[in-house]
Fold each of these.
Amino acid sequence: MTVKRLRGSQLCKLREQWFHEHPLCVLCLKADRITAATELDHIVPLHKHGKDDDSNRQGLCRECHLKKSKQERGHTYIRRVTVGVDGWPES
């Protein structure tokens, strides 16, 4: 069974409201970090029969969303290291 996804202006409104009410990454908070949520994630992916409603949504930062998505697909997540202008890795 395919779940109909929100798209377009409806999705934009939903994201704006969600991040206004839930501004921080859920997984970072569990790890005692404070990071802004920028990705609206389905806790149980739609392709695994998750619902497209508020009970199955969470806000994640980009890093946590990438890690979670790769793990769901059975891939290994390797964090990219960025280098600052001083030549040292940034955390």
Amino acid sequence: MHNSIPQVIAFYLPQYHPTQHNNEWWGEGFTEWTNVAKAKPLFRGHYQPKVPADLGFYDLRMSEIKEKQVQLAKEAGVTGFCYYHYWFGNGHQELELPFNQVLESGKPNFPFCLCWANETWARKFWNKDGAVVGAENLAEQLYLGKEDNEKHFYSLLKAFKDERYIRIDGKPLFMVYRPLKFDDVEHFITQWNQLAKENGLDGFYFIGYTLFVDSEYEIIKRLGFDAVCSCRINRNVKHDLSWAIRKAYSMLFRTPRKTPYKKVMQTLVGEEDKLDDVFPTMLPNWDHTPRSGYNGDLYTNSTPELFEKHCEQVLSEIRNKRDDRQIAFLKSWNEWGEGNYMEPDLKYGKGYIKALRQAINHIFGE
């Protein structure tokens, strides 16, 4: 039995509130709930729409919602949130309000860190029926070099100095979602580490996120990242011939690409997860059809019982690491539009929350 408690850091989508740009792009009052609520079952037995239970269709501008989320996260054994952070360059941010409220108010009193979701926003990501309508860029991800890197750093310095900010080796944890899409990431890392030291920090603990840890681990590390976050979500649904065939089949017969969660579970864990500088990811489910309709990928028949087994597999990989590297990520706390969420819904209630807690207790002991 281990006396240590693993760090379980859940990705957190700060989307659920109206914004000026979302109103312009998608219509007045649009939030991710718009996609979630209009989702329809696309085949017999397809669990859609997914309807939130305890927290309802919440608005993240409300502080009491954020407090309730933390209560539920603690019940699950989640030890911190990793907020998606959107910086497109030259001061252009999106969805920053919920995190800024957490920072300014000091509440909830719950550990956090940031993941820079460095991707261009394009309309095709969101098309409801899967028809690709071109690649109209709504917000283009730009890398503008030294001056912009500095502006970016100082926009977040208050967060990095916050006592709630999650640290590894005494350094703020900062994740880059697409490390290999960022041409000048080596200079960015060097510059930010220097700025950190000039401002009373010890530098950063940089983590690069990857879907393909086996082929990308060494590349990401060579770029200067301290560690890799491995999420194997696409392991058996993309980048092979069978996926291409399934994609053609799904478009021809108007059915999304389905993989049983029970089968997926075997592919979500791997040897690399035992390394001290690889942090694996737990995944309760996946269903992209609220956003992409028949062109979506999804897992079928995920249950709290299967998720508990999956969590035990992941936690078993990290339990023999040194205490300060017993870290796993959870994708995600509240990505309702992609079907990977832990918050209670009408079908399972707190089932997934209880499953994670039981897995932690089983693998790590109380």
Amino acid sequence: MNKDQDWDDIFENLEMSFVPIEYVNRIIIKFDNNVTWDINVDDSRKKQPIEQIEESLDQLFEEYENQIVAIDYKLDLERVKKDLSKRVFRFLKLNK
């Protein structure tokens, strides 16, 4: 099995109730009137701090909560892999 397949298996079985905005590239919001918003979080991070993005998203989700039918998060999987690998390596090293 190759590394990519290993990661595919990990991501396939992963359930997340919280995703740090640092790992999100895009958010696609679908509304009940068939309108779709595609929010480029990468671009937003270049223009404003993470805290401001999170606050704006919280307000957006709260304001449109009754009209939103789906939210799709596109993650920066390479960054997730890199950070997870570092943390697992550190955990294993410290717990010998």
Amino acid sequence: MENQNKMIKAYLEKGKRLTSLEALDLFGCFRLSARISELKTSGYYIEKTMIELPSGKKIAEYYKP
């Protein structure tokens, strides 16, 4: 978990956005929302927006403003 948090934080700090499917592919992270919650609890500011997929399903996309 700690290593995933570091990788996710570094990724977001590059100005990139991250969805749960991307987190699974890039970092082997099955629970992105939990990792985001841990980062927020440690004082790291992250925003979320909901995006709509071509299928119509909406998913969270996280980013550092």
